[in-house]
């Protein structure tokens, strides 16, 4: 079982809050967005009042929706059929992620995206007109994934909040001196192999269950 901290407003069966190593975004306006991947819901709050709840599709376990606190940094129209009529880009440091429409409406309510948040086209048009650039977006969950699934093995080429967490742990232990950006590159591999050697693990550069356990992320 991996370690999590449950916020007061949630029950044990619900997703946990963003891990503390991820950047926190201050609220800059009266409107904020909350995303609950396990519930497949996007909720819009205005001045502390819930004004909209939308069904969504989120990332599958191999390409999860990024957990954390972000903000909308770009609004665009008509990127292509797969993205529907509107795109709301988020400032995720390790890739291009956003809230957008879809030409696959059957995916709504499921874990079927490549990490982005899909909405019905009519809903994303409404959301686009409702929220300004700079809106805070909190995506709830744990960087190591749904409690019903084991954390994924990580290796060079992977990206995500789980990679960022591993980099943070390696940096705290004195092994990693690169940028903690959620991108598993050669410098992360070298640091991980050194950690594995020092802890009696096979220095293969793969974050497996044994590495998670050695770092105190799985019990």
Order of helices and strands: EEEEEEEEHEHHH
Largest sheet: 8 strands, mixed, barrel
Rg for CA atoms: 18 Å
Strand content: 15-25%
The class by helix and strand makeup works out as alpha/beta
Gap between N and C termini, in Å?
Answer: 5 Å
Low-confidence stretches: 1-23
Q: Counting H and I runs of at least 4 residues, what is the number of helices?
A: 4
**Average pLDDT, to the nearest integer?**
87
Folded structure, characterized:
The protein is of the alpha/beta class and 219 residues long. It is 19% helix and 24% strand. It has four helices and nine strands. It has an eight-stranded mixed beta barrel. The longest helix has 13 residues, at 186-198. It starts with 30 loop residues before the first strand and ends in a 5-residue tail after the last helix.
